[in-house]
Amino acid sequence: NGAMPHYRASEEEHAQIEGDGLLLIDSGGQYLGGTTDITRMVPVGTPSTEQKQDCTRVLKGVIALSRARFPKGILSPLLDAIARAPIWADEVNYGHGTGHGVGYFLNVHEGPQVIAYQAAATPQTAMLPGMITSIEPGTYRPGRWGVRIENLVINQEAGNTEFGEFL
């Protein structure tokens, strides 16, 4: 169904961080200067070769979309495959969108832009200068581990050519 597990520790129910593997931390906050949303992984003990491969594959997806140049006004769902391509190359996939707009003192998941092939590519999803968007591909192996790397990026003007303006 694409739903991701979320963990909340309580005094009554909590897990010990031990063994070999990965600790995934998705965090953020709202500040006077803006809203943050970030996901990082910390190795615990010695991660397996397969965990390292998953991390590398997901990092390649983050880098691919972070470095992408695209026409100003492109509909954001069309950018999804750029981050997925390095992951798909190894016949792996993930069941959630790749990115979302980030609000300021509102909802951290806020459009109009959304980077997800499942989303409708409608005119209001056009990518424009100044938009802040998350990039967060992942790999999830139910009952075993999950990998995600999330950064926030800002659309900046990259150039103007005979083919139009690029971000």
Record keyword descriptors for this entry.
single chain, 167 residues, alpha+beta, two-stranded antiparallel ribbon, two-stranded antiparallel sheet, 2 helices, globular
SSE layout and pairings?
Blueprint: E1 21-31, E2 34-44, H1 49-67, H2 80-88, E3 99-100, E4 114-115, E5 132-135, E6 138-141, E7 145-148, E8 151-154, E9 159-161, E10 164-166
Helix pairs in contact: 1-2
pLDDT below 50 for ≥5 consecutive residues: which ranges? none
**Helix fraction by DSSP (H/I, runs of at least 4):** 10-25%
Total helical segments: 2
Report the sheet-strand fraction.
25-35%
> Cα distance, first to last residue?
33 Å
Strand order of the largest sheet: 1-2
Mean pLDDT: 92
Largest beta-sheet details? 2 strands, antiparallel
User: What sort of overall outline do the alpha carbons produce when their principal axes are compared?
Assistant: globular
- How many β-strands, per DSSP? 10
Radius of gyration: 17 Å
Class inferred from helices and paired strands: alpha+beta
